[in-house]
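Researcher: I'm comparing several assemblies side by side, and this is the next one on my list. It has 453 residues spread over two chains. Same procedure as the others: predict the full complex and return the structure.
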Amino acid sequence: MNGYLLPVLLIILAPFIGGLVYGFERIVKARMQRRIGPPLLQPFYDFLKLADKRQMIVHSAHAFLGIMHFVSLWFALALLLLGADLILVIFLHLLSSALLIMAGFSTRSIFSHLGANRTALSILAYEPVLIIIAVSLFINTGSFDAAAAFTSEEPLLFKMPLAFVALLLVLPIKLKKSPFDVAEAHQEITGGVELEFSGLFFEAVYTAKWLDYIFCYTLVFLFAGSNILLGIGLVAGTFLYLNALDNSTARVNYKQMLRFSLGIAFTLAFINLLINSLT
Amino acid sequence: MKLAPYRKKSPWILHFNAGGCNGCDIEILACLGPKYDIERFGMINTGNPKQSDVLLITGPVTKRTRERLVEIYAQMPEPKVVISCGACACTGGVFRGMYNCEGGVDQFIPVDVYVCGCGTRPEQIIDGVVQALGILEKKTRAMEESVRLKKEALKEGEQINRRHVAGEIKPALT
């Protein structure tokens, strides 16, 4: 019972914590550019304002797919926090992205189509690496369960350091950060798949982004095993790394992104897998 | 839960250049920079009309941008405000009367705040946006009032209908 209390609390509070993380991130990013930045609760102000705008939907299936994207992402996050099968969690996350892609293709907007295309490409870039990491986890702990990683005595970071580096390389793709933010590309295709959402329905997509933060940082936390201090250190380090990277790099095109992630990140993860399975 | 106070706390700006010289656009970008930093007030420069509250227009309306301007205005969900930024957007400026130029923005869409200057200073733009937020609040109040009146009228109509069915009101023409 006690073991379940913390994950369940985290699952219920995930959107709030994610919102705080996003607000903090905006402040950190602003400080890196020598600006003051918005207040910490700014994402929630945005949330409440969007709830008040007039609802404009393209068609009902489009709005429904946006909401289902949020729901399925929350479900995937819940399973990850409860320590379920990592492969299942990764594919559930894929399902949530697929729903968003379908929403993107269901409208007639050219930017929405471009965004959906690029989201599919970025899935192609990060998904193989995540799967390899899950397989490495299996070889090291004898189980695909995330719970096995949470409870492992020796942190996985020391057993599979190259896999961690590969994860760090693909996280910007997943979180749509520079230099790999072709899927979102704010001034180029104005948000991609989220372009046609507005008002309350945009909120689902906007909040799903906060959940994605929690999802990614939990994946990072997995590498610390049962060592909570190390886990917090890893998450904080990853947070700073992501923001510094986002501030200091320019967008690359999707070909460069694919070449980089499948050429370097995937190779690193695969070498790690080979070393793990041979020793 | 009252959502009205939060409208002022996160105005998302849509910036549209209707055919100007980019002088005012640079000043708007200066507002986003470290010196003025309008993100302090929660303002974001979005590129998406469907998610923004404030339409910031620079430059005179040309024959080409006229339809796009109206279309973008129509795509923004209410409540929304429009700021015309700079001398060209207000009146046509030095481009007024040219063969490719239609003149000020207010001939095509309703403008709430006029910000003068060629190009406008960042302080003036921030001041204009703050004024626009006041207007945004007034507009939303008026919208809520009209919705409330409509609902009350509907309720009254319903009551009259019921009494009519119950036979309390005799039809006028029998």
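Model: For your comparison table: Strands of chain B lie at 12-17, 44-46, 54-58, 61-62, 81-85, 101-103, 113-115.
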